[in-house]
Amino acid sequence: MRQFLLFCLVLPALSQAMELVQPETPVLPQAPLTETIWQQKVAPATEYDLVGLHRYRNTEVRQVASLLFLPGTNMNGVLSILNERHNLWLFLANRGVTVYTMDYRTHFVSHELEYIDFMKTWTVAAFVDDAALLAGNIKALDAELPLFVAGFSRGVSYAYALAGKVDFAGLIALDGSFKRADPTGFDLASALQQFDSRADFASVLSRRGFEARYEMMSRVVDDPNGPANSDRHESIGEELAVKLHKAWGPGVLANTEDQLTPVRVLAQQMLDYDWYYPSIQNIEGRSIASHTDDLATDVDDHFGDMSLPIVYFGATNMGAESILNGVYSAVKSGSPQVALHLLEGYGHVDVLVANRARSEVYEVIERWIKSLIDNNK
Q1: Can you tell me the distance from the alpha carbon of 307 to that of 368, in angstroms, rounded to the nearest whole number?
Q2: 4 versus 60: which is more confidently predicted?
Q3: What is the pTM of this model?
Q4: pLDDT single digits (tens) 217-237
Q5: What are phi and psi of 334, to 5 degrees?
């Protein structure tokens, strides 16, 4: 343990001061794979203007690259699954890619909080600026390593936007997009007017309520064969599997009918999601996606002129429109090197944790990163 603590005393100068909240610590006892956690205040530095950065790396493996991972809506950078078979971060870290994951401002807002008006200013641009700040710190920490960016779901749109502010070696788009394949425009002014009148400044994760959702998923993690809440199901695991399969339409969120991912793994992955998300970003995101160049923002000004390599993974159960948008975003970005991978039968979350994700996602990403490094030597 001493060697991990000593490392924290000799960190290089960072672009902005981050507070170390957990020194480099083994993820499991005596394991070479470690986690370090920082937090940082961001503008305008009020109570909840705080972001987090987690670093996962294997101290016994030569580091070849760094990766900034931008989670999806309500997700965060906290390690929930300790098995690399179902965790991209650990898989890459064990193979020499230092993985940094981000906690958005939403991670520091309690589900018990009732006053959430401050979220009306938590725009897409604000979150992209937060990520740019952390990317600068990563470059200071790992100055000798090429830095890649990855996003899942909404995190893909952040990754595309961030690529206009930070120089990355490549972009990994996991079942998300930046632009629509048919950008027909969007009445942003009218949508914002309705947003102000509704004063609905944040969405919540689940209609079931925090306690009911957390209790159900915790029980599945503890014992998926335990008793269900309803006589219609044989076990709590089956009950959750049915709910997840139907949540966004048959197999769209997770294809539990075909058992792509064990339901206990899905519960582990989704248990500690953040509760709130700023509604303003749903409106802005639609506007950005619906214009070739959204004049209301500069986060997409570079789209069409991007030069970094891009690899895209799309879950077919998300439907043709989602796939078309993902492919369009990659192909029309301007990137001269685009690789496309369709994942047959996958639901959205399956992309991250499915049984086949190791061979069809993780290993593909590892080879892609290392081939780009080799080609640039």
Answers
A1: 16
A2: 60
A3: 0.95
A4: 999 999 999 999 989 999 999
A5: 105, -10
pLDDT (average), residues 145-149: 98
- What is the pLDDT of the chain when averaged over all its residues? 94
Element (H, E) at 137: helix 124-141
Instruction: Give, as one character, the DSSP assignment of residue 15.
Output: S
Please check whether residues 214 and 338 belong to one and the same domain: no
Asked if residue 37 and residue 134 are part of one domain, the reply reads: yes
Give the residue from 272, 293, 310 where a domain finishes: 272
Question: Would you give the DSSP letter of residue 341?
Answer: E
The SS3 assignment for 105 reads: helix
Q: Quickly count: other Cβ atoms within 10 Å of residue 97's Cβ.
A: 27
> Which residues are CB-neighbours of 149 under 8 A, at least 6 positions away?
67, 68, 70, 135, 159, 162, 163, 166, 168, 170, 171, 172
Q: 138 CB contacts (<8 Å, ≥6 apart)?
A: 53, 66, 68, 100, 147
CA distances from 190 to 186, 187, 194, 195, 287 (A): 9, 6, 6, 9, 11
Asked if 180 and 49 sit in the same domain, the reply is: yes
d(CA 278, CA 75): 13
Domain around 347? 2-199+281-375
CATH number at residue 190: 3.40.50.1820
Q: How is residue 141 written in tokens?
A: 């920490």
User: Looking at residue 377, what is its pLDDT?
Assistant: 77
**Residue 67 main-chain phi, psi, to 5 deg:** -135, 125
129 lies in the same domain as 91: yes
HSE (side-chain half, CA atoms, 13 Å) at 294 = 26
**Number of domains forming the structure of the chain:** 2
* 179 and 143 inside one domain: yes
E strands in 153-290: 171-174, 202-204, 276-278
Same domain, 110 and 42: yes
Are 70 and 195 within one domain? yes
- Residue 12 CA to its chain's centroid (Å): 27
Beta-carbon contacts of 216 under 8 Å, excluding residues fewer than 6 positions away, are 208, 229, 236, 239, 240
Are residues 185 and 95 part of one domain? yes
Q: What is the mean pLDDT of residues 233-261?
A: 97
